[in-house]
Amino acid sequence: MDDGATLAARQKLRFYQKGTFTVGNRLVSEADRSVQASIDRSNALTCGHRACQGCGEALGARYALDTALSAAGGNLIAVNATGCLEVFTTPYPETSWQIPWLHSLFGNAAAVATGVAAAMRAKGRPAVRVVAQGGDGGTTDIGFGCLSGMFERNDDVLYICYDNEAYMNTGVQRSSATPPAARTATTPAVGPEPGNVFGTGKSVPKIAAAHGIPYVATATVADLHDLERKVVKAMGIHGARYLHIHVPCPLGWGAAAHDTIRLARLAVECGLFPVFEAEHGLVTGSRKIRRRVPVDEYLKPQRRFAHLFTSEEGKTRIRRLQAVADRNIAEYRLLDQEGDA
Amino acid sequence: MEHPFAISLDVGTSLANLTGSWRTSRPVYVDRLPPCNNACPAGENIQSWLYHAESGDYETAWRTLTADNPMPAVMGRVCYHPCESACNRAQLDAAVGINSVERFLGDMAIRNGWRFAPPQADTGKRVLVVGAGPSGLSAAYHLRRMGHAVEIREAGPLAGGMMRFGIPKYRLPRDVLDAEINRIVDLGVVIKLNAKVDRVVESMQAGRFDAAFVAVGAHIGRRAYIPAGSAARILDAVSVLRSMECEDKPLLGRRVVVYGGGNTAIDAARTAKRLGAHEAIIVYRRTRDRMPANDFEVEEAMQEGILMKWLSTIKRMDDGVLTVEKMQLDQKGFPQPTGEFETLEADSLVLALGQDVDLSLLDGVPGLEIKDGVVQVASNMMTGHAGIFAGGDMVPSERTVTVAVGHGKSAARHIDAWLRGAVHASPERHDLASFDKLNTWYYADAPKTVRPTLEAARRQNTFEEVQGGLDETNALYEARRCLSCGNCFECDNCYGVCPDNAVIKLGPGERFRFNYDYCKGCGMCAAECPCGAIAMVPEEL
How many CB atoms lie within 10 A of CB B195? Predict the structure, then answer.
């Protein structure tokens, strides 16, 4: 996944023992530290927002936009779909955004961003870059038509999806990104097939890659260095780009507020959320699993999966989820050694 | 401005919304006690000096270390490093090689000629230290740095005590010992050699000393009654090891039997082997797991070809032949005789059955309490006689160099307080930074750098040092394996992972501060802190 230079940089960091995984590291040079470690980071999304305690999306949005802002030299406009992120940052008359920010409708963020990019071009300001962002509902369901159009036209927009696996803002309804067996308000844990039905849903990162756009990547709030590297890489490319960030939701998932990053980490380490990159339609690399865990370890701290642990049938469903994880591990070569991919 | 219905604020930033009011528990930065520091008998702040070593600032690391222990090059060779046994990293891969890094720093200080900062001002008080062993030297060092005039009186011809006359050269080269003693002397400590103190109270009065620290060690080898023929050669281990420092090396013969199971027995057997014995056998009445000797020294001895005879006691010695009785452990683990005997050929028998203290200098001192052959001291290291303190092997203790150094430091603090008419109060101990307080995901996997060990075959007949040292690259690597348990090392995790930007970064060396106006109390910072330096505390409602 890494080109030679980044791989060498990562190995160099490894010698510093803590630099590879922590946000910062006093032992490495400023240039090798994350944007988030900087005392002068821009905090594109500032304090006072009304996200729940331990919100993964608030964290992911700041991680991504601080990096994009820094990569664009401060020339950045963000367009937002309706969703938690929009609601908790901009209850009138307040805003938590410290960048130009625009909201139109639930389903048209990709189209509005296309328009903003076109406007900047028309005004002769090509240096201004455009980011569109939405939750999984606004991206994989409601805004999907506009998104696919933005992709196939190869419009110069970085679209970021913050995936918390359901409509959290309106009360935790199922989306096409909700995983099998998860309990939501619309997929209650009752009946012969409790929770979300196996075999439903879709992988938008794969669909995005199928458009043959220059860059598609997944990331999580549990690996900041990987996330920042992908945002920088995406910002260095013109044309349609798609970044899909896994952001645990304590409220919707029924998890402790302090477990947000731990859950994001376990989702990767068990194989249920593969972290990979694709360029022009081809998968070019994946983030390897470091300490593999069975899916139970990821599922157990979440009340939306509690029904799996109370019956014999639950065990069968856990095995089916493990099979999903195992297939991801095989498909994205998540256990191969670094450099094998 | 007229606000629309249900709107109470002007258009503006969300900074007006103080989300800190949501909080039910608050994060606070804490410094927890790292297990290494907790285990160190000399009270070193190991985590702190490793922190400086990690950034390559070896001199600051050495100065931090020597604030507690003036002899890191000695420690890095002879300490049994209980710090490493307690190290949390052992539960990840292998304990941090603290002892190796300590030795590296000590050797670097000798090479670079680093010196101790002289005392700020003289207090005018005079302290007599009796005995120039580890305990006495440590006490003298600390007292001198506090500004007191210190005179050490040593009965022997050279300073160092058991470090010189008990620990063999292959474990502690004498040039290293001399260098670290000289550095203490350079601080202004006076050492008088061949100056045995016979009566401590009289010596104090004659020298106008305000206090005394007595640390004469335990140099008398304990004898056991073993019936012996006239030609039997029986020696005691303390004398054997002491005579290694003199002109006439002891004559032990080709087959040497050492009787005992402590570190002194191991030292004596390894020394015998180096003096040319073909066979060195340690006879011990119990089993290996009950042996008081340090495990890795037993391991090294066995690698060198020392033979072990467990569950055996020596009944008598005739010309070249020992009679040994087999033992068995009873239910309580005590060895009991079996009545089965066997013989063992031996040119000499070295007894390593423990050591006693020569307490004659304390004869007639009022108020002293002597129990089990050692002097009883209070928690402030003072004996029953006001102004006379004691430490090291002559008080109840584990009898290691490190414990002795710790006694010296502790005594110095109490003596200093006592001279000022005050009482030294130890600072409150922090909660232990146990393994469950850590988030070890954030540490990269890195096994321990093992110090080079001289090839067994080569070392058997030489007195060259057995354990080699680290060089700068692997010492840095080893220092960086430290997990910094319980103490912030500025990894920026809390600053990064807060979804509410409620952590304020204060800059290098200044750590962080919470912005309680916005902190919602989610606890992510505490959960993702690698080293357990953040605690969640319930808010008062």
Answer: 15
Q: pTM for the complete prediction?
A: 0.90
Q: Which of B346, B383, B476, B398 is nearest to B130 (CA)?
A: B383
Cβ-defined contact of B13 to A261 (cutoff 8 Å): no
| CA gyration radius, chain A | 19
Instruction: Tell whether A16 is within 8 A of chain B (Cβ).
Output: yes
Note whether A1 and A277 are within 8 A (CB). Answer: yes
Residues of chain A in contact with residue B490, where contact means CB-CB under 8 angstroms, are 24, 26
- Show Cβ contacts of residue B412 under 8 Å, excluding neighbours closer than 6 positions: B138, B139, B141, B142, B143, B146, B213
Residue A102 near chain B (CB below 8 Å): no
Number of A/B CB contacts below 8 angstroms equals 154
CB contact under 8 Å between B499 and A16, yes or no, is: no
DSSP string for A81-112: -SSHHHHHH--TTEE-BSS-EEE--SS-HHHH
Contact check, Cβ <8 Å, B15/A258: no
Contacts of A261 in chain B (CB under 8 A): 497, 524, 527-528
Which chain A residues contact residue B518 at CB under 8 A?
47-48
At position B515, the amino acid (one-letter code) is N
pLDDT tens digit at each of 541 positions of chain B: 577 776 676 778 999 999 999 999 999 999 999 999 999 999 999 999 999 999 899 999 999 999 999 999 999 999 999 999 999 999 998 899 999 999 999 999 999 999 999 999 999 999 999 999 999 999 999 999 999 999 999 999 999 999 999 999 999 999 999 999 999 999 999 999 999 999 999 999 999 999 999 999 999 999 888 888 877 889 999 999 999 988 888 889 999 999 999 999 999 999 999 998 999 999 999 999 999 999 889 999 999 999 999 999 999 998 889 999 999 999 988 999 999 999 999 999 999 999 999 999 999 899 999 999 999 999 999 999 999 999 999 999 999 999 999 999 999 999 999 999 999 998 888 999 999 999 999 988 777 776 676 667 666 777 888 888 888 878 888 898 999 999 999 999 999 999 999 999 999 999 999 999 999 999 999 999 999 999 999 998 7
